[in-house]
Write a structure and sequence with these properties.
Blueprint (H helix, E strand, L loop, with lengths): L4 E8 L2 H9 L4 E5 L13 H13 L3 E6 L8 H13 L4 E4 L13 E4 L8 H9 L2 E5 L6 H12 L21 E8 L11 H6 L16 E4 L5 E6 L6 E3 L4 H7 L1 E6 L6 H21 L4 E2 L4 E3 L14 E2 L21 E9 L4 E5 L8 E5 L5 E10 L2 E4 L11 E6 L1 H8 L4 E13 L2 E8 L4 E7 L8 H12 L7 E9 L8 H22 L19 E2 L8 H9 L4 E2 L12 E6 L3 H4 L15 E5 L2 E8 L4 E6 L4 H4 L2
Parallel strand pairs: 1-2, 1-11, 1-12, 2-3, 3-4, 4-5, 5-6, 6-7, 7-11, 10-14, 21-24, 25-26
Antiparallel strand pairs: 7-10, 8-9, 8-28, 13-21, 15-16, 15-20, 16-19, 17-18, 17-20, 18-19, 21-22, 22-23, 27-30, 28-29, 29-30
Helix pairs in contact: 1-2, 4-5, 5-7, 10-11
């Protein structure tokens, strides 16, 4: 039985962010290429991906490239060329949504199913495993019980490969790795099942251009037109935070822990990656039955604090079943930590009874008289008296203040904020014509270097041995850390520091080369034969089929009726523009399952002249946001 491997997967807006994520403890990073990523504003060149992959290999970390939009027919050839370039640049896996890609001539790169593929059931997960996906991102809305059911189902009689494999390769011997988002922004809709952006602006979330209509303010009206909630951000969720649930998620079968945030800033990436690295390392130290996915141990000159970087409040969403307080209805912005109340006001200052010291440059926020989040920057902090960059007119005694920028914390993250070192055993021994240094790293990789040098006995044994250990252990400009230094010498030989330093450098270079040579590409999972049958025989626009290759894929797997993707603008009437497990009836104590006598009648969301109908599927515990697509003349691009 193989030892379970736990992977921390961090976002990379660009190569530099990805390198820092790895330095702060990520076992893998995911990054967009030049096109076709679900974050259109986070694209990167092939050269950037190659540079990131080279750094990742030093720690046996991985680079996953996102190509997770749906594609038009005229984009398929470009997508195929890009995948080959990703592979040649050293990428370890491709994250995809469009099944048409599986019909193309791709390199033997590992395939991961994007969150956009909307994996909520065992049947869907098993199908994706059987057609060749090695790692699948489960829907964020799943509970621990639902995750465990999928994990258990995938482990029952894993499929055999369609062709014989080289002995010991075993690409299909284990089930697909289950990946789950543990931190960051939450899409209110099931991923891949949201069309409101395309309907209203022509910018498709399935093509990387979401306009984030879910963060807008809405008024909620009941079936009689009565106002239930006025001007609230009713489709805006708090941010995901599974810090307290890592053990439970591991026990349920999750093996890859994904941090959202390819558009977030660098301090977020450093802080959140370090936070989950610390938590996972604590688990691994107490659980010898598991191992981490990459090499090296991290140390930090700061204490990771998730609440310090951008968030909309924290929720663990549905992991521990449905809860009432999952929405960020007051604001979609970062309000920060509650720090105190205004106690006194002057002409260009105010005083605050704060729970923690405030500093020059700190950012504060508060809710103004219209209940809108407003902000200010502290120019000068004189104890409890604060002089802002601009004195707000509507701040009053008793106003609650939040700190959404801790200048001291941010400055710590602007500097070098992590050391990641691979443990070494260093062994210095004699040879007939000199000395040899053998290095064995924590992964069991061995390298050595020789130094021709006369055997000259030292006059001071203690000083000789101490000097050798000191000079051998000087690894400060490398990625290694000497955990043990053995001197297998028959006598206390004299070696000048320059000679020892040269020998150490040669051995380190040899070890780096050996590590690079030992780094293997992730194997591609082989699709089972005969071709597995898709769980449904009909696909509506919710199947997101935009090209002929995707159509051919689903036909090959038994789907007889295939509608075109919503992005083709062929749906003329009202449809579900968003399907979500979040339910506004539940949020406002109007759930028929919770309150007797209430019916699940439709409700309405109003934003200016825009009206959206809410329909409730109580059997599935889902809310559908229903609407029309705006003029096709506006939407064609």
């Amino acid at each position: 039985m193989t030892t379970p491997i736990l992977e921390l997967l961090a976002p990379a807006k660009n190569a530099y962010f990805g390198i820092e994520a790895i330095n702060h403890g990520a076992d893998a990073v995911y990054i967009g290429g030049p096109a076709f990523g679900a974050r259109a504003n986070a694209g990167n060149s092939i050269a950037d991906i190659e540079r990131l992959a080279a750094h990742a290999r030093r720690y046996r970390a991985k680079v996953f490239v996102t190509l997770n939009t749906i594609l038009r027919d005229d984009e398929l050839d470009e997508a195929r060329r890009l995948v080959w370039q990703f592979y040649e640049a050293g990428a370890d896996a491709l994250i995809v949504q469009d099944m048409g890609l599986l019909e193309l001539d791709l390199p033997p790169i590992q395939l991961h199913a994007s969150t956009q593929t909307d994996i909520r059931t065992l049947e869907k997960a098993r199908f994706l495993q059987d057609v060749g996906f090695s790692q699948i991102v489960l829907a964020r809305e799943l509970t621990l019980k639902e995750i465990a059911k999928i994990d258990e189902g995938l482990r029952v009689a894993p499929p055999s490969p369609s062709v014989p494999l080289p002995e010991g390769e075993g690409r299909n011997a284990v089930p697909a790795t289950l990946e789950f988002f543990v931190h960051g922004a939450l899409c209110v809709a099931y991923s891949g099942q949201c069309y409101i952006s395309h309907a209203h602006t022509g910018r498709s979330a399935n093509r990387g251009e979401c306009s984030q209509a879910c963060r807008l303010p809405y008024t909620l009206e009941d079936e009689a037109g009565r106002i239930v909630a006025h001007d609230k951000h009713l489709l805006s969720m708090k941010d995901n935070d599974q810090s307290a649930n890592l053990r439970a998620l591991i026990e349920a079968g999750i093996r890859s822990f994904k941090i959202e945030g390819r558009l977030k800033d660098l301090s977020y990436v450093k802080n959140i990656t370090a936070h989950y690295r610390t938590l996972l390392d604590e688990f691994l130290e107490a659980s010898p039955g598991y191992r981490r996915a990459s090499s090296g141990r991290c140390t930090y000159p700061f204490t990771p604090r998730p609440e310090k970087t951008f968030n909309r409040g924290a929720t663990d969403y549905f992991v521990n079943e449905r809860k009432p307080d999952i929405g960020a209805f007051d604001t979609p912005k970062f309000s920060g930590e509650l720090i105190g109340e205004v106690s006194r006001i002057g002409p260009d200052w105010f005083e605050v009874a704060a729970s923690a010291p405030l500093h020059n440059g700190d950012g504060l926020s508060y809710y103004d008289s219209h209940r809108e989040l407003a902000g200010l920057r502290i120019n000068r902090a004189d104890g409890a008296r604060l002089f802002p960059n601009e004195m707000p007119e509507d701040i009053a005694v008793g106003t609650a203040l939040y700190r959404n920028r801790d200048q001291e914390f941010e400055r710590a993250l602007e500097k070098k904020s992590a050391e990641r070192r691979i443990g070494l055993h260093m062994q210095l021994g004699e040879t007939p014509d000199g000395f040899a240094l053998t290095l064995t790293d924590e992964d069991g990789i061995i390298a050595s270097a020789a130094l021709p040098h006369a055997h000259e006995v030292s006059k001071n044994a203690e000083r000789a041995f101490g000097g050798l250990r000191e000079n051998l252990g000087k690894l400060g400009n490398t990625i290694f850390d000497a955990k043990e230094i053995s001197l297998d010498l028959s006598q206390p030989w004299f070696l000048p520091a320059s000679a020892v330093n040269g020998l150490r450098r040669d051995a380190i270079a040899a070890l780096e080369a050996a590590r690079a040579a030992a780094c293997e590409r992730l194997p591609r999972r082989i699709a089972v034969s005969p071709a597995p049958t898709y769980p449904e025989n009909e696909l509506s626009y919710l199947g997101n089929v935009l090209n002929s290759a995707a159509r051919a894929f689903y036909e090959k797997h038994g789907v007889s009726v295939i509608a075109e993707a919503y992005e083709t603008n062929t749906e003329k009437g009202e449809v579900s523009l968003m399907i979500t497990r979040h339910c506004l009836r539940y949020s406002y104590n109007l759930c028929p399952k919770e309150v007797k006598g209430i019916r699940p009648d439709p409700m309405t969301l109003v934003n200016g002249k825009e009206k959206l109908t809410l329909r409730f599927d109580c059997k599935k515990c889902e809310m559908h946001v229903i609407g029309l697509r705006k003029s096709a003349l506006v939407l064609r691009r």
